[in-house]
Amino acid sequence: MPFRSDADPGPDLFVPPDPLERFQALYAALAANSSWLTDKIPLRLAAASLITSPGDPALLVSATHRRDAELRARLGWLTDIAPALRVLLAAQMVKYGDDANAFIDEAERVRVMFRAAHLRRDTAYEALAVLVLRRVLAGRPVEQAEVLRLRDIYEAMKRHHWFLTGPEDLPVCAMLVTHPGTPAEIGAGTDALYRALHKRADLWRGDSLQTAANLLYLTGVEPGVIVERYATILAGFRETGTRIGEDEYDELAILCFIAWPVEKIVATVSEFRDRLKTTFAGLSRTAALNLAASLAFTRLLPETEAGQAGPALARLADAKLLLDMQAIVAARASTTA
Q1: Is 199 exposed, middle or buried (0-12, 13-18, 19+ CB in 10 A)?
Q2: What's this model's pTM, rounded to 2 decimal places?
Q3: DSSP letters for 294-332
């Protein structure tokens, strides 16, 4: 998924003529340097994250492997971060020109502040939250006030959904640190979207619905407008016979902010999904739609009407890969529990 810097189209934005061909080249380069036992899911996500990075795919992948090795050498307290997550962290660092040692130094410093603020402990999600803060603060060192605001946003969300809100929400809370409004207003706003999506789009209550609500809140668009947009896109997919389950709720949230008719969005995602299924044998329905949404986002965003792409879309695009990372962390936790 494109990142924050990609969501504000400008002269330096690299948009490949065919995002799928670019994705295939990056994925092939990543897979060529991996054992046949390597989990291919994080490699696909890493390749998707690098699609709009200019440069030769082999050089981008080489840089990703160097960052990965640097992270592995410096992990320390982060040693329980799985290689699947580490390669995604490395890809983001290449995307932004970040330094692995600088990231680890900052993560260790901020972790002390997390403990002082009594934030929930979780190594992987704490690392992801620090990564988000480095993005939204444009590399500026995290200060105590921002850690306290993150904690207060987390607690505000938990007051509305105590049974759903957990450490996995720390990265989203970090993304909301620079969002306008008090923590109480943010908690109430995300809850209002949660309820509206359930009522208007008939979505199942639970973690997936909370994720979609949090993503939509990042845009700052009026709740009634954005929920109606979501319901319309959902109906558009169902009219083509595409089943949308809980695992795809966040994909539809991403697609809500491409300023094109629903028919074009659905057609573009469907085209990429069908090509992906032909190219990658055994790709699951959910994985195909996930990647297709990312590729459609890459193709359609530069065509978006002036003024439609900007910081809100940027935060949303950032959030997409972080949610993919969280899904991998959760999957690894469930297999080792």
Answers
A1: exposed
A2: 0.88
A3: HHHHHHHGGGSPTTSSSHHHHHHHHHHHHHHHHHHHHHH
